[in-house]
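Now for today's protein.

===
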Amino acid sequence: MTEACPHDGLFAAATTELVRCPYPVYEHLRGEHPVQWIPALTAFALTRHADVLDVLRRPEDWSSTRQSGPGAATTLARAAAEDPEYPDRVRAAAVRRIGIAEKGAALVNCDPPRHAEQRTMMNKVFSPRRVALLEPPIQELTTSLVDRFATKGETDVVAELATPLPMTVIARALGIERMDLATLKRWSDAFVRANGRPNFTRADISDLIMSLDECYDFFEAEMEDRLANPREDLVTDVAQADLCHEERLQMLTLFLIGGNETTNSLIASCIWLLCRQPELQDRLREDPALIPPFVEETLRIEPPVQGLFRIALHDTTAGGVPMPEGTFVWLVYGAANRDGAQFPNPKRSASTAAPRGAGT
């Protein structure tokens, strides 16, 4: 399925139209071109639920180590490291990024059996007791943030709640709450900015690589401090874990990203759906037990991560199509989660607040 994609221009330009509402494009691809080559992404897009799930269940064929795709930060770093036109400091930072990425696969970027080993380590960190300790301060922080705008009549809910809430929580959990949230967000944004994005200027690449370098410097210093002065925080847990240095850095940056990008988007999506359906607000207030399934359904219809990549470890197949070794596929969760073959009335909103089986 390497014929021209009818929507390649949207992907190449990362248009506002596509970012704001990609679902009509996904629906067309799923119905007409379920395994479609996207030149702008240098990858095949898989949009059917069954095909996405099949690849996810075959780690022996499809690796997670390049899940950010062919245009990810490491690829950009390789280009910068080999280009004498970049300043020496940028090239040195690029070489550092390459080394960390190659030696430090962590959690979502890690294949079995190491993935299971790392999950076991982190499950101990996120014990029920540790998680329970986070709940009261999260409730207090949420109330404080909402109180700031509750009487205004209107607000930018992303800027006033969805962004500062998870960023503050993860900063406290990491033990770095003294840090400026804007700096932490800038570092986190740098890690995710490259994912699936095809076009970068030289200035973009330089800024991205140097932001990563700053973040690595910061976490290296924090881990050195925790080894001398342990605390009950995530930086201490990671510094003391049975991980190599590169895995530790990758693990900490993943926690930072999780406290920014994905949680931020989920909170915003939940609020957006509630604003569109005032009657649902009343139902959730009357029966708080409906809140968890409402969140699960929101994750299905508005996933914070629209898709991730896999790379073929050898000649194999995806969606019934032969895929040579080294081929990238983009698993489009945003499309798979609205597949009518898996979910009856897949476009239905979360108004019934009832989960309907696992999304991707």
User: Anything to note?
Assistant: The chain has two domains: 1-64+308-330, 85-306. The first strand starts at residue 35 and ends at 38.
